[in-house]
Specification:
heterodimer, A: mainly alpha, MetI-like fold, 10 helices, about 80% helix, about 0% strand, globular, B: mainly alpha
Chain lengths: ~260, ~260
C-alpha cells in the first residue's frame, strides 16, 4: 500500500467514525432518551444553529460580546506578558522575587479569582477582561521567558565578535530567537482565554457565549446549550489554526512546534 | 532549588504579606474589598475548628481523586490501543480532538443536567478532563517508542504480554505522567466550576457561598486553599516526572 492509499483509507475511517457517531447519537436521542431536556438529536442542534445565525440572528450579540472581551484580555496579556517574561529572563534578581507569586497565581484554578475580580472591578467588562487576561498571561509570559533563556550561545558569541551593543544584541539576536517560543505561548493562550471568557460570563453577565451556555443550562434549554458549546469549540479550533498558520509563516524554519 | 533563590522567594512572600497587611489596615475602612492577611488567618482558624471547612475540603478531594484515578486507568488503556492499532486511532481521533478543543467548563452545565448536582457529576467532569489529556499522551508515548527496544524484545523472544509490560509501558511512562500533569490543573478547575454551578458541598460551593454573602475573609481562605492544592499537586507530579524521566528538561513552571 503506498502513501496516498494509506492516507485515503485513514480519512475514510475518520469520516466513517464521525458519521457512525452522529447516527448513533441521533438514534439514541430519537428512540432511547426521547426527552429534549436531556438530549437532543444533532439534527436539532444544526437546525437551532441555523435559526440563531440566519433567522433570528440572536447568536451575533453573544458572539460579539465574547469576542470583544476575549480580544482585550488577550492583547493586554501579550502587552504585559512578553516584556515581563523578558525582564525575568534577563535579571535573576527580578525572577527570584516574582517567582513565588507567579507560581502561586499560575497553579491556582483561575475560577477562584473570578469572585475577587468581580468584587474589585464590578460586573461590567472590566472584571471579564481581567479574568481572560489572567488566563492568557501565564503561557505567554513563561514562553517569552524560556525563549530568552535558551537563545543559542553561538549566536550570542557571534554577536560579541561583531561587537554588537547590548541593545543591538537584544534587537537582532535575542528577540528574533525567542519569537517562535512567544508564538507557541500565544497559541496555548487561545484555549485558556476562551475558558476565561466562559468563566467570566457566568458572573453577572447579560450577554456573551458563556452567558448563553450558563443560561441554557439553568433553564434546561439543551438545544441552545449545544449551540453554545459548539460555538466555543469552533472558536477554539479557528483561533488555534489561525495562530498555527501565522507561526508557520513567521517562523518557516521550524517544522512543528511542540503542542500542548 | 538553590539556597539564594529560596531565600529571595521567602523574603518576597513575607514582604508582600506585610505590605498587604499595612496597606489594608491603613487605607481601607472596609474589609470587603481586600481583607488583611490577619483577618484571613482568623477566618481560616474559625472555619477549620468551628466551621465546615473540613467537610468541603474532603468533598472536593474525594471527587477529584475518584475522577482522576478512573481517568488514569481508562486513559492508559484507551491510549495504549490507540498507539498500537492504527485503525482504532483513526476511529477515535476525531472524537478525542473535538473533546479536547471544547473549553471544558462549557460542558459542565450539560453534565450537571445529565448526572445531577451530586458527587457523580463532578467525578465525571474530572474524569473527562484528565482522560483526554492522558489518552493523547499515552498514544503518543506508545507510537514514539524507540524501535530498537522492540527489536530487543523480539530477539529476547518476549511474549506479547511481556513486551507490553516490560518494554512498551515503561517506555510510555514519561508521556503518561506528562498527561497527568496537564490533567491535574485543568481537572481542579473543572471540579471547582462544577461545584460552583450546582452543589451542596466542596470548595467551589464555598467560593460561591462566600462571594454571595460578601464574606471576603472566607472567600480569600477558599482561594488560598485552592492555590495550595494547585501548588502541591503540581509539584508532586513534577517531582514524579523528574524521577521517571530525568532526561527531560523539566520547567520550573511548564505551560500546558
Amino acid at each position: 500500500m503506498n502513501g496516498s492509499d494509506r492516507k485515503f483509507s485513514a480519512n475514510v475511517l475518520k469520516v466513517a467514525s464521525v458519521v457512525a457517531g452522529l447516527t448513533l447519537w441521533h438514534l439514541v436521542s430519537a428512540y432511547v432518551i426521547n426527552d429534549s431536556a436531556l438530549l437532543v438529536s444533532p439534527v436539532v442542534v444544526v437546525k437551532t444553529t441555523y435559526e440563531m445565525l440566519f433567522v433570528t440572528g440572536e447568536l451575533y450579540p453573544h458572539l460579539f460580546a465574547s469576542s470583544g472581551i476575549f480580544f482585550y484580555g488577550f492583547v493586554l496579556a501579550i502587552i504585559a506578558g512578553v516584556p515581563l517574561g523578558f525582564v525575568m529572563a534577563l535579571s535573576p534578581l527580578v525572577r527570584d522575587y516574582i517567582n513565588p507569586w507567579m507560581a502561586t497565581l499560575y497553579t491556582t484554578p483561575r475560577i477562584a479569582f473570578a469572585p475577587i475580580l468581580l468584587l474589585w472591578f464590578g460586573i461590567g467588562a472590566g472584571s471579564k477582561v481581567a479574568i481572560v487576561f489572567l488566563g492568557c498571561v501565564f503561557p505567554i509570559l513563561i514562553n517569552s521567558y524560556y525563549g530568552m533563556r535558551v537563545v543559542n550561545r553561538e549566536y550570542v558569541e557571534l554577536a560579541r565578535s561583531f561587537r554588537l551593543r547590548p541593545w543591538e544584541l537584544f534587537l537582532k539576536i535575542m528577540l528574533p530567537a525567542s519569537v517562535p517560543f512567544i508564538l507557541s505561548g500565544i497559541r496555548l493562550a487561545v484555549g485558556r482565554g476562551l475558558t476565561g471568557v466562559a468563566i467570566a460570563e457566568w458572573f453577572g453577565a447579560t450577554e456573551g457565549l458563556g452567558y448563553l451556555v450558563y443560561f441554557a443550562g439553568q433553564t434546561l434549554n439543551v438545544p441552545t446549550l449545544f449551540v453554545g458549546v459548539t460555538a466555543f469549540a469552533a472558536l477554539g479550533i479557528v483561533g488555534f489554526e489561525v495562530i498555527r498558520r501565522f507561526e508557520a509563516y513567521v517562523t518557516p524554519w521550524r517544522k512543528e512546534a511542540q503542542g500542548g | 532549588m538553590p539556597r539564594k533563590e529560596l531565600l529571595r522567594g521567602c523574603i518576597s512572600i513575607l514582604v508582600g504579606l506585610v505590605i498587604w497587611e499595612i496597606l489594608t489596615r491603613l487605607l481601607l475602612e472596609n474589609e470587603l474589598l481586600i481583607p488583611p492577611p490577619t483577618s484571613v488567618i482568623r477566618s481560616f482558624w474559625n472555619l477549620t475548628f468551628f466551621g465546615q471547612l473540613n467537610k468541603h475540603f474532603a468533598a472536593t478531594l474525594i471527587e477529584f481523586s475518584y475522577g482522576f484515578t478512573t481517568a488514569c486507568i481508562a486513559g492508559i488503556v484507551i491510549g495504549y490501543f490507540m498507539g498500537m492499532h492504527k485503525w482504532f486511532d483513526e476511529i477515535m481521533d476525531p472524537w478525542i480532538a473535538t473533546l479536547y478543543s471544547i473549553p471544558i467548563i462549557t460542558v459542565v452545565p450539560l453534565i450537571i443536567i445529565w448526572f445531577g448536582i451530586g458527587m457523580i457529576s463532578k467525578v465525571i467532569v474530572v474524569f473527562k478532563i484528565t482522560a483526554v489529556a492522558i489518552i493523547l499522551n499515552t498514544a503518543a508515548g506508545i507510537k514514539n517508542l524507540d524501535p530498537v527496544w522492540l527489536e530487543l524484545a523480539k530477539s529476547l523472544r518476549l511474549s506479547t504480554w511481556e513486551t507490553t509490560y516490560k518494554i512498551r509501558f515503561p517506555g510510555a511512562l514519561p508521556y503518561i505522567i506528562t498527561g497527568m500533569r496537564l490533567g491535574v490543573g485543568r481537572a481542579l478547575l473543572g471540579v471547582v466550576v462544577a461545584e460552583l454551578m450546582a452543589a451542596n458541598a466542596g470548595l467551589g460551593y464555598m467560593l460561591r457561598d462566600s462571594s454571595e454573602t460578601w464574606d471576603s475573609p472566607k472567600l480569600f481562605v477558599t482561594v488560598i486553599l485552592l492555590a495550595a492544592i494547585g501548588l502541591v499537586s503540581f509539584n508532586l507530579i513534577k517531582r514524579l516526572e523528574q524521577r521517571m524521566a530525568p532526561w527531560r528538561q523539566s520547567a520550573e513552571w511548564s505551560t500546558e
